[in-house]
Amino acid sequence: MGFLSSSALSNPNARRKPEVLPRRNRAGVPCMAVEKRAFRQDPLPTIKDFNRRISYHGKRKEFDAALKVKGMIEAAEALDTGIRRNVYTFNAWLDACVRCGRKELTTEAMQEMASLGVKPNIVSFNTILKGFATGQKKDVDNALALLNEMKRLNVEPDILSYNTVLNACAEALEMTTAKKLVVEMLRNDVKPDDFTITTLAKGWMTLKNVEELDKLLLLKIKMESGSRTLKRRKPTAYYTVADGYVRSGRPRKAVALIKSLLPHHREETDGEVFSMLHEIDVAVDVNTFNVLLKALKESAASSLSAQKVLMEMERYDVAPDNITYITLVDLLCANGDMELGEATIASLADSDFPTTAAMYNALIKGYSRTSPPNMEKVFEIYEAMKEPKDGYSPPDHITSACVVDALARVGDVGTALKVLQEAEASEDFAARPRKETFNALIKAYRTAVLKVRTLEEDEFDGDEGADDFDREHLAHYFNAARRILIRMHGFHDERVTPDVITYNTAIDICAELGDVPNAEKLYNEMIADKIRPDVTTFNTLIKACNRARTGLMEAFKWTKEMSEKNVKPDQYTYAGLLSASAESKDVPRALEYFQETLQAKRDEMMRFREEEEESFLQLSVHPSAYVSLMKAFSNLGVNGSKMIFKLRDELKARGYEMGVSGYTAIANCYAQQGDYNAVDATFDEMLRKVRNIPESLNKRQQSIRLKAYCKGNNLPAAVQLFFAESDPDVAMYNTLLMYCCDAKDMDNLVRVLRRMEADGVVPDERTGVSVKEMMRSVATVLKSFDSRFTSLILQAASSNSPPTAEQEAT
């Protein structure tokens, strides 16, 4: 028997001597001396045997083995054994190249076919087209070019050709190109099939484009209506579109679509498109009901409605699978029915239904989402899974991710690290952590930063002092997250390497720290790793610019990048630009972006309003947009105050909380009017209603109170407030000095200057403006001050430069 015997081909795992790759000459062909011995065997292997062997190695992604067999064929040709490569040989080789990620060799193979006079067929081209589904635009262009080459060679593309190119478009989210390709298909009388619909649906659901999903559903219905077959239709395209609705934020529409396929529920659905489905007999399967359960979960349906789905499955003689029960438990836990979720799993174990780690993972997620997270139950389940007993399943890689995520929610970085290390040391490969666990750990670092950052925001209310928080203390969290990112790269395994969530979370740490350079560096690494950024990526980068107060132009840079990456802005993008405009005191742009935020929300509202009228009030603009606009108007004096009060009334009408920044903006308006009673009442309300803030006012807020007393001609109260403050800043000194001068109150003026000298506060230009009018009266008194402090006051008072707009606002 030859070296490729029929038994070896029929059973590749049969015992045989290992094939040794022979030495090669410069052309890469096995040395003739070695191959002469191989081809003296009787009977000789045929070209069909070689083709099957190349195909076998290709499917197993054994590139070197496939290359070896190809070399043997070339050697056989050179020895004139009668073996000649044919189109099937090249097709098998092309398939091996594509499967093994060596698509660059396909061009060489096609050139070789042409030199041997072997004409490629439709399979040759379709095989090469498969290699272009990489998510890169350039590969979409290459796929389209190859499609045109097929036509030039009179090889008509078939439905598989078009579907393969559509898949490349969907992977790269080049859906405009995909639409044009569908038009070309129809023009060439190539009818779309279920794979066409599902491929397009996957692309549109990634872009969350509900309108295009609607068109796909209508196209599918027309396809079914035009078919004369009496067979029951497959449900694949329908539940894929329904899943697209869920992923696009329209779960109720998905529920309506699935119910339209069930004869017993068709009366519950309305609408022209869903009514057309009533005439089509669809053979629903377990995947259909699984999508229905998923849609019910995302639409916050009751636990009872999920249990009814199980009864419906029994009516249609569809057996639940693991996904069914996992989704059911997930829904129960999302509704807070934790005991019912545990009872469901226990009943499955009692009935000998194989429970899985995913079911217990759903319980862990459920307990982590309670308020506050029930960490005791989380670890009770986790420990029981590590030592399986009472029907518990061993943990998998998602288990450690769920536990670390629970710890991330409470900011417990130390324990999260221990859980990760424990999972890494597991003897069970299935329990080893993957990217989900590492992402959760980076999230834990982000939560730790956010906790400290929130306290700093409450302390400084987002003003100048917010830049004084301990960056060095928090920078080690970013450095730790950076090390995790480097570790993930080191695995060289797509199951562990970073994804868009990894980078978004790491960039968000930079945003919380106001670290724009590192945020931009991470973005560039993300692009270099060929990871497609999403709208969250850009929103987080804009947030970093706002934290660092880099100005509008830096934020505009990212909106331009969004456009180039074909990422559509959402309401949070416009809210970020609104915040940047407010920080830049650019009221016209702030108003413009507030309108854009409203419009983005309105567009979302109109899509949902078809579903449920009551969702109208749930889709109003986020309160941070109103607060940002308040900040912008705070620089316009009396006219600005009127707008700020209107925005406050709008927030209250919608039942929103104004937060620290909102209350501060309102108090500042009252301070401008000298209404110190209203200022005190506003801050009292803030301390009562806003949760998780310090019990006392920060420097910015005390400065507003001081200004209110001064403007309200209550200088004694202002002086009392000032001297009660333990560490007043220069702005508070300047405010009180100015009003002491206005009141010609020499005694308090001197007291303030004495404290300014004692506290070592350096006078600025605004200090000079404040005391300039009383310099003659003060000159004599200043002789008793330290000479250095006296010279600073005189220098500030003699400065001719007017105060800046920011100083004037202060």
Summed up, what is this model?
By secondary structure, the protein is mainly alpha-helical.
Beta-strand content estimate:
under 5%
- Supply the number of helical segments: 43
Q: Gyration radius, to the nearest Å?
A: 35 Å
Low-confidence stretches: 1-39, 458-469, 608-619, 800-810
Number of strands: 0
Average per-residue pLDDT, rounded, comes to 81
Question: In words, what does this structure look like?
Answer:
With 810 residues, the protein is mainly α.
Please describe the topology of this protein.
Layout: H1 6-10, H2 32-38, H3 47-59, H4 63-78, H5 87-99, H6 104-116, H7 122-130, H8 137-152, H9 159-172, H10 175-187, H11 194-206, H12 210-226, H13 236-247, H14 251-260, H15 272-277, H16 286-298, H17 303-315, H18 322-334, H19 338-350, H20 357-368, H21 375-386, H22 397-410, H23 413-424, H24 435-460, H25 471-490, H26 500-513, H27 516-528, H28 535-548, H29 552-564, H30 571-583, H31 587-609, H32 623-633, H33 637-653, H34 659-673, H35 676-689, H36 699-711, H37 715-724, H38 730-742, H39 746-759, H40 765-771, H41 775-782, H42 787-798, H43 805-809
Features:
810 residues, mainly alpha, 68% helix, 0% strand, disordered N terminus, disordered C terminus
